[in-house]
Amino acid sequence: MMGEPRGSSDAIPLLERLGFDQYFPVGKSHGPYGTLGAVLLALFIPVLLSSMFMGKKKTKQRGVPVQVGGEPGYAVRNMRFSELIEVPWKGATTMASLFEQSCRKHSQQKFLGTRKLISKEFVTASDGRKFEKLHLGDYNWITYGETFDRACNFASGLVRLGHNVDSRAAIFSDSHAEWFIALQGCFRQNVTVVTIYASLGEDALVHSLNETQVSTLICESKQLKKLGAIQSKLTTIQNVIYFDDNETDTDSGLSGIWTVKSFTEVERLGKENPVPPSIPSKNGIAVIMYTSGSTGLPKGVMITHGNMVATAAGVITVIPKLDSNDIYMAYLPLAHIFELAAESVMLTVGCAIGYGSALTLTDTSSKIKKGTQGDVSALKPSLLTAVPAILDRVRDGVLKKVKEKGSLVKSLFNIGYKRRLAAVEGSFFGAWGLEKMFWDCIVFNKIRTVLGGNIRFMLCGGAPLSGETQRFINVCIGAPIGQGYGLTETCAGAAFTEWDDTSVGRVGPPLPCSYIKLVSWEQGGYTVSDKPMPRGEIVVGGSSVTAGYFNNDAKTKELYKVDERGMCWFYTGDIGQFHPDGCLEIIDRKKDIVKLQHGEYISLGKVEAALMSSGYVDNVMVHADPFYNYCVALVVPVHQMLEKWARDVGVKYNDFPELCNKPEAVAEVQKSLSEVARAAKLDKFEVPAKIRLLPEQWTPESGLVTAALKLKREQIKAKFKDELQKLYE
Ligand SMILES: *[C@@H]1O[C@H](CO)[C@@H](O)[C@H](O)[C@H]1NC(C)=O
Ligand SMILES: *[C@@H]1O[C@H](CO)[C@@H](O)[C@H](O)[C@H]1NC(C)=O
Ligand SMILES: *[C@@H]1O[C@H](CO)[C@@H](O)[C@H](O)[C@H]1NC(C)=O
């Protein structure tokens, strides 16, 4: 095993589950004739085209400066809308009214799709570990009309069950159709829904439910046992409603003080005893979303109905030709604002949502039984959301397979890639027309089928996407990526790239529902008078800015500020710069900038991004102590790479942890870090003076990175306190 791309080893769960590294992008059958044809076309077509077209593309203006209140800065609005938009259409001022109106309009159309479980088996791997494998059937659909009826029934059933409508309900579950129905059912009775990540730990779960005084908990049947164990701590809960999947026995050992009912029973109860709706108001709190923050206990963000419809209204203006013919693949957690906002967008335009999971997404995903279809193959979606870490792995997986296929396939892929890249970047010398068809046929169609073959647009958010990966996906999947920038606190809405923007590394102009302002941060060295572009802390204002943190006025006052015109601004802590065409680029994070002993500022994120390009690095955290004039780093090495090096140079070791402690290994990795640091033009104080190699990978389960695979610095620092201390001795 050599030359494994970084991080493709099996401890990174999210990506491994997707199974992207297991397919073959280029078939065996393309022999030398394919190559010859490719070379000929590659030579002739550009010559023909270049003589037909001349000239340079003009930069399109996408955002313009706008006069706003509040702290002085450089504010920009979306070019196409002079006023902030608040609703997708008149009358859709709350999620409840939006849902009702959209369901009536599209009543006969497919809405929520679920795959039927046909069978389930366990296979034992060579190392004795057991894996669950699923055989799933086709998608079964319910229409918009049926969904509306079920949500109404659930709403009535909730009241009949004895839920006090002045108290809150919580959903603690992975995403599926009933999650969405439960949410809409609660909205119809003006019940605020608390959302909690299904992967959240026990303490965080107890804290969130207790803090918001939740009286009805909606969960999966497999969670009932877990709840039984902490029942004594959940003092506010009165009712538990579980999604019935016929899979787990529901005898959970819960003591009799809770009313426990299945989702179907509640729906039936409501259907037989309807209750008139109680429609919420625009400023009512729709959702209290607990975010798995990088520090401490999770914080609950209060999202109003007005926020949710505003984000949906903004996003539908930027996805091209979005309508009820689209099919959306839903597999990320609905407890994440990014997914919740995306599904609200799909509801708004009347398209179909097919549910799946990260573990069953592709034909080679870890939970899919061999020979059966993954979710994307069964659904053939036209739209998909992804976080950058997933797209990075897609790229690594494709490149790895291309490399393994030998030099002929590799050169073929490279020529095809270059030709398509030129086309994507808008040059007339790239592959268009006939030549495009040719390359699609021999190289890219095969790659595309991995995602179902029909993807026409991808939404990406959660963290910055590297330019290289963005291009790679553009070329190989043949679809534009709409990169969103937003936070839970801005209800996912802030900026979004436009489909015809071929640049990379930027997050587009403000959405039509938001203004974005840069505010100078003098201490950090970023000001709005910087040349060539204004830079500063990113502050978001407008209709998507949420109502603050639940039960935390101090934090709310610190980060949310209402200006003299009544507009609320959220201070993101991210540092950005505005390009002349009105597009935002995220360049840094306030928290991650440390001032060293001699007064230089070091941006940890920037240094880490540079060091990640070393082939030895699976993950890295740079640490800077303000009392020293240098930084240090904790490095998780790529097992295969370090082991290969050890074999090549003849370093003996018993196990990987021992190898990580070998001074020769540390020196080798450090040498590689210095090289990539030099290539990235880092300053001397930015190159880690000492490093420590850590054998265990950082996964969301270990609590060291977030679900989007962002570093949780405080947790990493706490866990490796001793190791860090030693690096400063
Ligand atoms: C629940 O919250 C109350 C305050 O509202 C607090 O006194 C109590 O300790 C909390 N219980 C748990 C289990 O966290
Ligand atoms: C559960 O099983 C019952 C009968 O065994 C069936 O009627 C029902 O449709 C099943 N529900 C689900 C969600 O599969
Ligand atoms: C909805 O609930 C909120 C409190 O959660 C309350 O202030 C508001 O009056 C309710 N609206 C209606 C129409 O009952």
From TrEMBL:
Residues 133-550 form the AMP-dependent synthetase/ligase domain. InterPro entries: AMP-binding_CS (IPR020845), AMP-dep_synth/lig_dom (IPR000873), ANL_N_sf (IPR042099). Keywords: Membrane, Transmembrane, Transmembrane helix. It comes from the Eukaryota. Its cofactor is Mg(2+). GO terms for cellular component: endoplasmic reticulum; membrane. The chain crosses the membrane at residues 33-53. GO terms for molecular function: long-chain fatty acid-CoA ligase activity. Pathway: Lipid metabolism; fatty acid metabolism. PANTHER family: LONG CHAIN ACYL-COA SYNTHETASE 8, LONG-CHAIN-FATTY-ACID--COA LIGASE. This is Long chain acyl-CoA synthetase 8. The lineage of its organism: Eukaryota, Viridiplantae, Streptophyta, Embryophyta, Tracheophyta. The gene is LOC116187688.
